[in-house]
Amino acid sequence: MNLALSTYKTQTGDSMLRNSATLGCLAAILSIATPAFPQPAPATPPATAKHAFTAKDWATLRSTNAAAVSPDGTILYTVTFGAEKGPTHHEWWTIAPDGSHATKLDLKDDFTPLGFTRDGHALYGGWPVKNLNQFAIFPIKDGKAAPVPSTLVLLPRGIQSAAPSPQGTRFAIIADPGPPDALADMRHVAEPDESSLYVVNTDGTGGSWWCAGLKFIGQIAWSSDAGSLAVMSHLPHIGNHRESAAIDVCSATDTRHVTDIPNSAAGLAWAEGGKQIAFLSTKSDVLTPEHVWSVPSAGGVAEDRTPHLQATAVALAGDPQGRVWVSVGHGVQSDVEEFRDGALTPLYRWPEGVVDGLPAMSEYERAGGQIAFTVADPRHASNVAVPDSQELRKITHEGDEQLAKVDLGPVRAVHWSSKQGTALEGIATFPAGYVEGQKYPFLVLPHGGPESNDELRMDPLARAIAGLGYVVIQPEYRGSTGYGAEFLAAIYQHFGDRAYRDVDSATDYAIAQGWADPNRLAIFGWSAGGFMTSWTVTQTNRYKATIEGAGITDWEPFLWTSDVDQFDYDARWTDEDPEAFRKFSAVAYAKNVTTPLLILHGEADQRVPTFQGTEFFQILRARGKTVRLVTIPVRRISQCCGSSG
Known about the structure:
The protein contains ten helices and 40 strands. The protein is mainly β and 645 residues long. Strand 21 and strand 22 (303-304) form a beta hairpin. The longest helix has 18 residues, at 495-512. It is globular. The termini are close together.
């Protein structure tokens, strides 16, 4: 199900973000788990000794993400970090491709850059005006934004995104065309949010709505001549039981329908000199786009161009030169590949870890060919890298100074087979000072999603738990991305048996390796991983302590109350076959629970509504079980766990 932070559907927090609530969540681990796993008092370290990774390190760790490239090759990137209390901070920087001239930008408050203008002397993006995100262009000189925007486009309900034409003369803006809701601060009408196409000149003049009949636009891609756009529309969540999409070619004068897609879809790019339109989709009931498809731009039936891909195509986009870039997950690692002549060709990888998403690049024709990537690995925060011959070279090093003071235990990609013979992969994180052959308290940490995966990168939560003296395994159970369509689709109607057995087999593996003390086992999961925790304690008493974050505990109401489509778990009608959903609902088996359980949830969570945790807690407490519910107040949601998926 589309619960996790992923490329496919936007959410605000599968992982708990860096802030004071993060420290509270880690303190919760200490409060419930440490009494079960007594440890000898550590010796007092010398003043210059490194320390184990802590929640404070997590909260303050700086990381970067490549955002855009100017026509002259200057790279825009963001630096993200937190503090022990308060919200996550974002700084915007520019840097030359050789790593010189790193400059922190002085931007207007709340302005979020999306990219450069054609001359490279200004940034376009979103800027709040009367609580609505509007389109603005701010000239930049000597690293400082002008006091007022040179272009400001005000639309009745604000904007969602914007993309410049290849010539840089116009912008296509996705926005809700409806009039302002005068009562929006008093009530919200349950109806699909609309998104249409508004095209405007770079100076803000000549704006008009194109293809007014398209009301649920998700992705757009300019044609090379800027005379039209490929447009992908999605069936809205409200009022529909399954997902589907459509592609049209939209111009100022007409709409030409290209194809219908009887499943979910994502990404959009012109390919093969404009003769094809490429995108991601699937044939699976799981509904996660995972193969590269294309359709003739003149119209026709879409075709799966990568039917034998034993990996997952995660994201897709084109550039003004006609290249189609694809981010591909290969198990716990990922690379960037090019889709050309109906096939994928690997281009860039980061051997120690992952290439995070698609490259940042110039959006304009006849611009330089500079591109920039975000790379990450288990011993470093994410940073910006550029091509250097056939490899990638880092040009930023955020977090390195801080992590040099931390004793980071080993991290390994590990492989095993479950009792049922399923070949599985996972990531094992070991505590600082790990001694081979010694048994440690153990925690299995299943990811959210479940159509997501863990990657070989700096994972602050796994590191912080390992910093408490645990061995941690993050199992890539069936339903995870990165292992091909069959592995991904195996989750359909089988989350509570197949995926559960896969996750539990990670504990068997850790015990067999001599890493885990069988008397000191724990499990902690968030969102879909939270389901796995709540379900596990109804099925076994082998774990001594458990933490469930924003987990699904009652499937029947969850499918209809989450803010996004969740029928990729099971598309049967809940009112026709309620038992099909009850059989994997933890609330139906609460009497079986004997393990102490901590439930964490955000009070404004719309991805996994808070009642899921409250219901399970109330039943367990009424049955006299050892359980505690901790919720994050609404005022903290933007800082913490958000709409957990």
